[in-house]
Amino acid sequence: MNNNTKAIRSSGWRTDMLIGFPDGLLLLLFTTQVLYSKELSVDSFYLIHLFILGVATLLMMIAVFRANRGDDEDGTMSPEERAKLQNLDISRPTIEQIAMEMERDQQIWEKTLQEENVELRSYGLGHALKSALATGLFFLLGGSLTFLPYLASEDFSFASKVSLSISLIALLIFAYLKSRITGQRAIRTSLRYLATGGLVILASYLISIAI
User: Fold this and answer.
1) pTM exceeds 0.85, yes or no
2) Domain check: are 148 and 202 in the same one?
3) Which regions span the lipid bilayer (predicted)?
4) Based on the domain organization, do 140 and 194 belong to the same domain?
């Protein structure tokens, strides 16, 4: 991947949706399922999740903007990074192992981009800002779908069931859209997102009973 096309995302709103929407939905699905049964006031529950959604959206937008900058780094260990590790008295075999892991991660990432049919284009400030904003909006939309039932009803036990149903339906619709956009098999994509949602729900349940 040469530096002239180093921006790793660029196929427009479709890519922004593929990245932002499921992350927002799954994050709020996790946090709401963990906290809805806890002894929190309604206002505290709302404030906590609005804060989480706002901060996470901002961080997502920053990450997307940085990803679109087209930095000169190619995902492998630079001479400067190698020198810093050597100054920390880290052995040469360990440094080489770290370098190999970084190179392997970069190869996996580039393969993922190819599998997801993400088109690359050279960096542009306008495109980077637009992509960051669009991804943030899709992230916010995903999180809002999960959170709105709690705003509509202060019976959080009931709202939790509605939120869970909406989230799973939204994941299925998203999986179908993603399969159409990327050319992947709809059933396999749907099962993958249902499994991901199931793992998030399981993790939230285990953490909820542990705290």
Assistant:
1) no
2) yes
3) 47-67, 131-152, 158-177, 189-210
4) yes
